[in-house]
Amino acid sequence: MTAPHDLPSVVPVDAATTAAPATTGGKPNDLAEAAGLPVGAGQIKATYDPRLTNEDLAPLAKQTWSSYNIFAFWMSDVHSVGGYVTAGSLFALGIASWQVLVALVVGIVIVQVFCNLVAKPSQKTGVPYPVINRAVFGVLGANIPAIIRGLIAVAWYGVQTFLAAEALNIIFLKFVPGAEGLLDPSFLGLNALGWISYAILWVAQAALFWNGMETIRRFIDWAGPAVYVVMIALAVYLVSEAGWQNISLNLSTGPPMTFAASIPVMFSAIALVVSYFAGPMLNFGDFSRYGRSFAAVKKGNLLGLPINFLFFSLLTVVCASATVPVFGELMTDPIKTVKAIDTPFAILLGGLTFVTATVGINIVANFISPAFDFSNVSPQRISWRTGGMIAAVGSVLLTPWNWYNNDEAIHYTLGVLGALIGPLFGILIAGYYVIGRQRVHVDDMFTMAPTGRYWYTRGYNRNAVATVIGSGLVAVATAVLPKLAASLDLFDVTWIASYSWFIGCGLGFAMFVFLERRNPQIPTLDASDPHVSDGTRNEPVVVSHHAEPTGS
């Protein structure tokens, strides 16, 4: 495959590479469009090593996503069964409603700030998360965070597909005669109806993914608002049945807490919000790279996180609160709520809506990212599509329905992997902003030459590797050991586990900065070098240059 010659492109002053990041006016993308380059395709230089390069990992030729596309991304991430249950659980913690709202605001603003931080390096360079990590971990060391993140996503991809299948089961049981006969017996822990629903959604998600990022973008642009329409309709129906005077923002059934006792619970609620978004926060560079400008990404984050999440949370608690007078019990699971309404139209519409919502979050949070991660391991053998299918197949082999309801399995498997998200986040932020000063030599992220700036020691930055091990062990210990100690009646400090992400992130950040100050590995780059992306500069300029033929 070869690239067209004499290709006009737009290169920002801060990223003079073969990538052509767009401006908010769209003119650079018009030039790339005229060259016939598809959205999502990267431009590959002849100097790029094939062992580190394919079209999916190379700097983007076009960055076209608007602030609405980023907003829709967050709608797809928030509007899910998991998001509904999480929001409802915050209002049931026993603290006052105003305290819950304060915790929601503080938590989601923290998420917004962190997402902006992780978005910038990928948006400025046009590369996904595993590639930008090459500047920090080394061109080979970047596979360490990629594999960790990929394994977490595969596990949760299976869980989310299973949850969507549960919603689909309700539709089958309501509209397909004889579907009850498929509930028994089971194979590998899942009954025949469950296998049918799981297979349908597995194929549907794979087909959506296989059609590429533009198809996925169009899907999430539609899916998020569609869920809102149904959620608002559900809230209107439930409130009309319950009466507005019977709606309460306090879902707690226990005795009220004193103000002093409520403060630790507020902090736990904040930590819960941040932890819920920990995966998408780390993954966000895979999507921000498509943003037409960093300003557009920040605006999309503002709309999609504080504003969208707060509105969805209030909508959730209104629906959950109304289930008490309407059905006689508190329901924080929207699938059970729809099932309890027990009218064909409601079950069909509600079931399909929450299937769509769960597929949306699964695609953006758990499918696209491992596709990049696994492709990064062996770019010439594993394309983005192949990497995604590896994740999809792996999710079935894990049989998530067998361990999803097993607290011990989740705690000691995903708890270990999930605790590592914090250190990985802290290391990336420290490496890009503090040590690297927002400067990245884009071309050197694609070379295996020992003279490359990111070759370090045989392709690994030993400071980054040491930090992952050191801070990772502490983070895992805070996530896993408190529960073990409590189960053995030794002592009870299980509250620490709620803050494992913060502990891992802070320790990873501090330890990496310390090691880099003591024994520098990340190079100091000259901002005037035309091959260096400098995130502190924003003004783009139009240049014309010759695109190199690709090496594959």
UniProtKB/TrEMBL annotation:
Record keywords, A-Z: Membrane, Transmembrane, Transmembrane helix
Composition bias, Basic and acidic residues: 528-537
Region (Disordered): 525-552
Family affiliation: Belongs to the purine-cytosine permease (2.A.39) family.
Subcellular location: Membrane
TM annotation in the entry: 98-119, 131-159, 192-210, 222-239, 259-279, 300-324, 344-365, 386-404, 410-435, 463-481, 493-515
Source organism (scientific name): Cellulomonas dongxiuzhuiae
Protein name as it appears in the record: NCS1 family nucleobase:cation symporter-1
Principal localisation: membrane
Pfam families in the cross-refs: Transp_cyt_pur (PF02133)
Domain of life: Bacteria
Membrane topology: Multi-pass membrane protein
